[in-house]
Amino acid sequence: MIAVPESGSAANGLAPALSMRGLSVRGLSKEFGGRIVLQDFDLDVAPGEVVALLGANGSGKSTALKCIVGIERPDSGRILLEGADLTALTDRALIDARMRTAMVFQQIHLVRRRTALQNVCSGGLGRLSLGRSFIWAAFPRTLREEAMACLDRVGLADRAHNRVAALSGGQQQRVALARALCQRAAVLLADEPVSALDPAAAEQVMALMVDLARTEGLAVAAVLHQPELARRHADRLVGLRDGRIDFAGRSADIGAEQVDGLYLAPAARSVAHHDQKRIPA
Ligand SMILES: Nc1ncnc2c1ncn2[C@@H]1O[C@H](COP(=O)(O)OP(=O)(O)OP(=O)(O)O)[C@@H](O)[C@H]1O
Protein backbone atom coordinates (compact mmCIF):
# COMPACT_ATOMS: atom_id res chain seq x y z
CA MET A 1 0.00 0.00 0.00
CA ILE A 2 1.36 3.36 -1.03
CA ALA A 3 0.88 6.20 1.42
CA VAL A 4 -0.81 9.33 0.11
CA PRO A 5 2.01 11.81 -0.38
CA GLU A 6 2.04 14.99 1.62
CA SER A 7 1.99 17.13 -1.47
CA GLY A 8 0.54 20.58 -1.69
CA SER A 9 2.71 22.03 1.01
CA ALA A 10 3.39 25.05 -1.15
CA ALA A 11 0.77 27.78 -1.09
CA ASN A 12 -0.45 26.96 -4.60
CA GLY A 13 -0.86 23.26 -3.84
CA LEU A 14 2.08 22.21 -6.00
CA ALA A 15 5.09 20.27 -4.84
CA PRO A 16 7.94 22.71 -4.28
CA ALA A 17 10.27 21.18 -6.88
CA LEU A 18 10.00 19.14 -10.05
CA SER A 19 9.47 15.56 -9.02
CA MET A 20 11.55 12.59 -10.12
CA ARG A 21 8.52 10.38 -9.53
CA GLY A 22 5.05 10.49 -11.02
CA LEU A 23 4.16 13.41 -13.26
CA SER A 24 5.35 17.00 -13.19
CA VAL A 25 4.18 19.62 -15.67
CA ARG A 26 5.48 23.17 -15.79
CA GLY A 27 4.40 26.17 -17.82
CA LEU A 28 2.35 24.26 -20.39
CA SER A 29 0.79 26.56 -22.98
CA LYS A 30 -1.22 25.88 -26.10
CA GLU A 31 -3.02 28.01 -28.63
CA PHE A 32 -5.31 27.11 -31.48
CA GLY A 33 -5.55 29.52 -34.43
CA GLY A 34 -3.98 32.31 -32.40
CA ARG A 35 -6.34 31.84 -29.45
CA ILE A 36 -4.67 30.83 -26.18
CA VAL A 37 -6.59 27.94 -24.63
CA LEU A 38 -4.01 26.87 -22.04
CA GLN A 39 -1.50 29.15 -20.35
CA ASP A 40 1.25 28.49 -17.80
CA PHE A 41 -0.35 25.25 -16.67
CA ASP A 42 1.47 23.49 -13.81
CA LEU A 43 0.62 20.10 -12.35
CA ASP A 44 2.23 17.59 -10.02
CA VAL A 45 0.82 14.14 -9.44
CA ALA A 46 2.79 11.80 -7.21
CA PRO A 47 2.54 8.00 -7.29
CA GLY A 48 -0.46 6.97 -5.19
CA GLU A 49 -2.19 10.32 -5.60
CA VAL A 50 -5.40 11.34 -7.34
CA VAL A 51 -5.74 14.90 -8.65
CA ALA A 52 -8.99 16.16 -10.17
CA LEU A 53 -9.05 18.86 -12.85
CA LEU A 54 -12.21 20.96 -12.68
CA GLY A 55 -13.50 23.76 -14.86
CA ALA A 56 -16.32 24.88 -17.11
CA ASN A 57 -16.68 23.69 -20.71
CA GLY A 58 -13.85 25.02 -22.82
CA SER A 59 -11.58 25.93 -19.88
CA GLY A 60 -8.72 23.82 -21.26
CA LYS A 61 -8.89 20.64 -19.16
CA SER A 62 -8.84 18.16 -22.05
CA THR A 63 -6.21 20.17 -23.89
CA ALA A 64 -3.96 19.88 -20.83
CA LEU A 65 -4.36 16.09 -20.71
CA LYS A 66 -3.93 15.77 -24.50
CA CYS A 67 -0.68 17.74 -24.37
CA ILE A 68 0.60 15.54 -21.54
CA VAL A 69 -0.25 12.30 -23.31
CA GLY A 70 1.07 13.53 -26.66
CA ILE A 71 -2.20 13.78 -28.63
CA GLU A 72 -1.62 17.54 -28.90
CA ARG A 73 1.75 19.28 -29.11
CA PRO A 74 2.17 22.05 -26.53
CA ASP A 75 3.59 25.37 -27.72
CA SER A 76 5.74 25.61 -24.61
CA GLY A 77 6.29 24.02 -21.24
CA ARG A 78 7.89 20.92 -19.78
CA ILE A 79 6.40 17.50 -19.08
CA LEU A 80 8.39 15.26 -16.77
CA LEU A 81 7.40 11.65 -16.42
CA GLU A 82 9.28 9.77 -13.72
CA GLY A 83 11.97 12.42 -14.08
CA ALA A 84 12.31 12.08 -17.88
CA ASP A 85 11.59 15.30 -19.79
CA LEU A 86 9.21 14.20 -22.57
CA THR A 87 9.79 17.43 -24.45
CA ALA A 88 13.50 16.54 -24.77
CA LEU A 89 13.12 12.88 -25.76
CA THR A 90 12.90 11.57 -29.33
CA ASP A 91 12.28 8.31 -31.18
CA ARG A 92 12.25 5.07 -29.19
CA ALA A 93 13.01 6.77 -25.87
CA LEU A 94 9.94 8.98 -26.31
CA ILE A 95 7.75 6.01 -27.28
CA ASP A 96 8.95 4.04 -24.25
CA ALA A 97 8.34 6.98 -21.93
CA ARG A 98 4.88 7.60 -23.40
CA MET A 99 4.00 3.95 -22.80
CA ARG A 100 4.18 4.75 -19.11
CA THR A 101 1.15 7.03 -19.51
CA ALA A 102 -2.31 5.57 -20.12
CA MET A 103 -5.45 7.49 -20.92
CA VAL A 104 -9.09 6.62 -20.37
CA PHE A 105 -11.89 8.63 -21.93
CA GLN A 106 -15.60 9.25 -21.45
CA GLN A 107 -16.20 7.54 -24.80
CA ILE A 108 -14.60 4.26 -23.92
CA HIS A 109 -11.96 3.37 -26.49
CA LEU A 110 -12.20 -0.41 -26.55
CA VAL A 111 -12.70 -2.78 -29.47
CA ARG A 112 -16.30 -3.73 -28.81
CA ARG A 113 -16.34 -6.95 -30.84
CA ARG A 114 -13.28 -8.29 -29.01
CA THR A 115 -13.36 -9.85 -25.56
CA ALA A 116 -12.47 -8.03 -22.37
CA LEU A 117 -9.33 -10.15 -22.12
CA GLN A 118 -8.21 -9.34 -25.67
CA ASN A 119 -8.74 -5.64 -25.03
CA VAL A 120 -6.71 -5.78 -21.84
CA CYS A 121 -3.95 -7.74 -23.62
CA SER A 122 -3.74 -4.90 -26.14
CA GLY A 123 -2.44 -2.71 -23.32
CA GLY A 124 0.73 -4.79 -23.39
CA LEU A 125 1.19 -4.62 -27.17
CA GLY A 126 3.94 -2.04 -26.89
CA ARG A 127 6.14 -4.66 -25.28
CA LEU A 128 5.68 -7.12 -28.16
CA SER A 129 7.52 -7.21 -31.44
CA LEU A 130 5.57 -5.54 -34.25
CA GLY A 131 4.87 -8.79 -36.11
CA ARG A 132 2.90 -10.27 -33.24
CA SER A 133 1.15 -7.09 -32.24
CA PHE A 134 -1.72 -7.32 -34.66
CA ILE A 135 -2.63 -10.96 -34.23
CA TRP A 136 -5.40 -10.85 -31.64
CA ALA A 137 -5.58 -14.61 -31.24
CA ALA A 138 -1.85 -14.98 -30.72
CA PHE A 139 -1.15 -12.98 -27.60
CA PRO A 140 1.61 -14.82 -25.72
CA ARG A 141 0.54 -16.85 -22.70
CA THR A 142 2.47 -14.63 -20.30
CA LEU A 143 0.64 -11.56 -21.58
CA ARG A 144 -2.73 -13.32 -21.33
CA GLU A 145 -1.93 -14.30 -17.75
CA GLU A 146 -0.94 -10.75 -16.88
CA ALA A 147 -4.10 -9.41 -18.52
CA MET A 148 -6.19 -11.91 -16.58
CA ALA A 149 -4.60 -10.73 -13.34
CA CYS A 150 -5.40 -7.13 -14.30
CA LEU A 151 -9.03 -8.05 -14.99
CA ASP A 152 -9.15 -9.81 -11.66
CA ARG A 153 -7.75 -6.64 -10.07
CA VAL A 154 -10.74 -4.65 -11.34
CA GLY A 155 -13.20 -7.37 -10.36
CA LEU A 156 -13.97 -8.63 -13.85
CA ALA A 157 -12.13 -11.94 -14.14
CA ASP A 158 -15.46 -13.71 -14.63
CA ARG A 159 -16.24 -11.54 -17.68
CA ALA A 160 -12.85 -12.03 -19.37
CA HIS A 161 -14.25 -13.94 -22.32
CA ASN A 162 -17.30 -11.73 -22.87
CA ARG A 163 -17.26 -9.35 -25.78
CA VAL A 164 -16.92 -5.76 -24.62
CA ALA A 165 -20.18 -4.88 -26.40
CA ALA A 166 -21.99 -7.14 -23.92
CA LEU A 167 -20.66 -5.28 -20.87
CA SER A 168 -22.25 -2.30 -19.10
CA GLY A 169 -20.67 1.16 -19.33
CA GLY A 170 -19.22 0.84 -15.83
CA GLN A 171 -17.77 -2.58 -16.62
CA GLN A 172 -16.28 -1.26 -19.86
CA GLN A 173 -14.60 1.56 -17.98
CA ARG A 174 -13.17 -1.02 -15.56
CA VAL A 175 -11.83 -2.97 -18.56
CA ALA A 176 -10.18 0.26 -19.74
CA LEU A 177 -8.55 0.60 -16.31
CA ALA A 178 -7.38 -3.03 -16.47
CA ARG A 179 -5.85 -2.28 -19.87
CA ALA A 180 -3.96 0.66 -18.33
CA LEU A 181 -2.63 -1.73 -15.66
CA CYS A 182 -1.59 -4.24 -18.33
CA GLN A 183 0.22 -1.39 -20.10
CA ARG A 184 2.17 -1.05 -16.83
CA ALA A 185 1.44 2.66 -16.85
CA ALA A 186 2.85 4.84 -14.10
CA VAL A 187 0.48 7.71 -14.85
CA LEU A 188 -3.21 7.44 -15.59
CA LEU A 189 -4.92 10.38 -17.28
CA ALA A 190 -8.70 10.14 -17.25
CA ASP A 191 -10.84 12.53 -19.31
CA GLU A 192 -14.35 12.56 -17.85
CA PRO A 193 -14.12 8.84 -17.02
CA VAL A 194 -17.48 8.72 -15.27
CA SER A 195 -19.56 11.28 -17.19
CA ALA A 196 -21.45 8.60 -19.13
CA LEU A 197 -22.12 6.41 -16.07
CA ASP A 198 -25.04 6.29 -13.67
CA PRO A 199 -24.30 7.58 -10.12
CA ALA A 200 -23.64 4.12 -8.63
CA ALA A 201 -21.31 3.06 -11.45
CA ALA A 202 -19.57 6.46 -11.34
CA GLU A 203 -18.96 6.02 -7.61
CA GLN A 204 -17.60 2.52 -8.18
CA VAL A 205 -15.21 3.58 -10.96
CA MET A 206 -13.95 6.56 -8.94
CA ALA A 207 -13.36 4.33 -5.90
CA LEU A 208 -11.52 1.85 -8.13
CA MET A 209 -9.26 4.58 -9.54
CA VAL A 210 -8.37 5.72 -6.03
CA ASP A 211 -7.72 2.12 -4.98
CA LEU A 212 -5.46 1.54 -8.00
CA ALA A 213 -3.57 4.74 -7.21
CA ARG A 214 -3.00 3.68 -3.62
CA THR A 215 -2.18 0.01 -4.15
CA GLU A 216 -0.47 0.06 -7.57
CA GLY A 217 1.25 3.40 -7.08
CA LEU A 218 -0.43 4.98 -10.10
CA ALA A 219 -0.36 8.76 -10.38
CA VAL A 220 -3.91 9.66 -11.45
CA ALA A 221 -5.10 12.95 -12.98
CA ALA A 222 -8.80 12.99 -13.83
CA VAL A 223 -10.94 15.62 -15.53
CA LEU A 224 -14.28 15.57 -13.75
CA HIS A 225 -17.53 17.44 -14.25
CA GLN A 226 -18.89 16.37 -10.86
CA PRO A 227 -17.32 18.64 -8.18
CA GLU A 228 -18.83 16.61 -5.32
CA LEU A 229 -17.37 13.38 -6.65
CA ALA A 230 -14.02 15.12 -7.10
CA ARG A 231 -14.09 16.52 -3.58
CA ARG A 232 -14.86 13.12 -2.07
CA HIS A 233 -12.37 11.05 -4.06
CA ALA A 234 -9.48 13.27 -5.14
CA ASP A 235 -6.58 14.19 -2.87
CA ARG A 236 -6.17 17.53 -4.61
CA LEU A 237 -8.20 19.76 -6.89
CA VAL A 238 -6.98 21.99 -9.69
CA GLY A 239 -9.51 24.52 -10.99
CA LEU A 240 -9.08 25.88 -14.50
CA ARG A 241 -10.68 29.04 -15.78
CA ASP A 242 -10.17 30.28 -19.35
CA GLY A 243 -7.04 28.16 -19.74
CA ARG A 244 -5.38 29.34 -16.53
CA ILE A 245 -5.16 27.78 -13.10
CA ASP A 246 -7.69 29.49 -10.84
CA PHE A 247 -6.89 27.46 -7.73
CA ALA A 248 -4.95 24.37 -6.73
CA GLY A 249 -4.78 22.68 -3.38
CA ARG A 250 -5.86 19.86 -1.17
CA SER A 251 -9.53 18.95 -1.60
CA ALA A 252 -10.25 19.55 2.08
CA ASP A 253 -8.85 23.10 1.86
CA ILE A 254 -10.88 24.27 -1.11
CA GLY A 255 -14.32 25.68 -0.39
CA ALA A 256 -17.46 24.76 -2.31
CA GLU A 257 -17.99 28.41 -3.34
CA GLN A 258 -14.51 28.48 -4.87
CA VAL A 259 -15.36 25.42 -6.96
CA ASP A 260 -18.84 26.74 -7.83
CA GLY A 261 -17.24 29.98 -9.00
CA LEU A 262 -15.58 28.10 -11.85
CA TYR A 263 -18.95 27.50 -13.42
CA LEU A 264 -20.41 30.99 -13.09
CA ALA A 265 -20.64 33.27 -16.10
CA PRO A 266 -18.27 36.30 -15.78
CA ALA A 267 -21.10 38.73 -14.89
CA ALA A 268 -22.51 36.42 -12.18
CA ARG A 269 -18.97 35.92 -10.91
CA SER A 270 -18.37 39.61 -10.28
CA VAL A 271 -21.73 39.89 -8.45
CA ALA A 272 -20.85 36.84 -6.31
CA HIS A 273 -17.43 38.31 -5.60
CA HIS A 274 -19.02 41.65 -4.62
CA ASP A 275 -21.56 39.87 -2.34
CA GLN A 276 -18.82 37.81 -0.76
CA LYS A 277 -16.88 40.96 0.09
CA ARG A 278 -19.98 42.41 1.81
CA ILE A 279 -20.47 39.38 4.06
CA PRO A 280 -18.76 40.13 7.39
CA ALA A 281 -16.20 37.47 8.32
N1 LIG B 1 -8.12 20.87 -32.04
C1 LIG B 1 -8.63 22.06 -31.72
N2 LIG B 1 -8.69 23.05 -32.59
C2 LIG B 1 -9.17 24.27 -32.27
N3 LIG B 1 -9.64 24.58 -31.04
C3 LIG B 1 -9.61 23.62 -30.12
C4 LIG B 1 -9.11 22.31 -30.38
N4 LIG B 1 -9.20 21.57 -29.25
C5 LIG B 1 -9.74 22.37 -28.32
N5 LIG B 1 -9.98 23.59 -28.83
C6 LIG B 1 -10.56 24.74 -28.10
O1 LIG B 1 -9.80 24.91 -26.92
C7 LIG B 1 -10.63 25.31 -25.86
C8 LIG B 1 -10.41 24.36 -24.69
O2 LIG B 1 -10.95 23.10 -25.07
P1 LIG B 1 -10.87 21.84 -24.12
O3 LIG B 1 -11.49 20.70 -24.84
O4 LIG B 1 -9.50 21.67 -23.62
O5 LIG B 1 -11.80 22.31 -22.92
P2 LIG B 1 -12.40 21.47 -21.73
O6 LIG B 1 -12.17 22.26 -20.51
O7 LIG B 1 -11.88 20.09 -21.75
O8 LIG B 1 -13.95 21.49 -22.12
P3 LIG B 1 -15.11 20.38 -21.89
O9 LIG B 1 -15.41 20.39 -20.43
O10 LIG B 1 -16.24 20.91 -22.70
O11 LIG B 1 -14.61 19.08 -22.40
C9 LIG B 1 -12.06 25.31 -26.39
O12 LIG B 1 -12.41 26.63 -26.71
C10 LIG B 1 -11.97 24.48 -27.63
O13 LIG B 1 -12.92 24.88 -28.59
TrEMBL record:
Entry GO MF terms: ABC-type phosphonate transporter activity; ATP binding; ATP hydrolysis activity
SUPFAM superfamilies on file: P-loop containing nucleoside triphosphate hydrolases (SSF52540)
SMART domains: AAA
Keywords: ATP-binding, Cell membrane, Membrane, Nucleotide-binding, Translocase, Transport
Short name of any one Pfam family annotated for the protein: ABC_tran
Keyword presence, Cell membrane: yes
Domain ABC transporter: 23-267
One cellular component term from this protein's GO annotations in UniProt: membrane
Alphabetical list of PANTHER family matching this protein: AMINO ACID IMPORT ATP-BINDING PROTEIN
Protein's recorded name: Phosphonate transport system ATP-binding protein
UniProt source species: Microlunatus soli
Classification lineage: Bacteria, Bacillati, Actinomycetota, Actinomycetes, Propionibacteriales
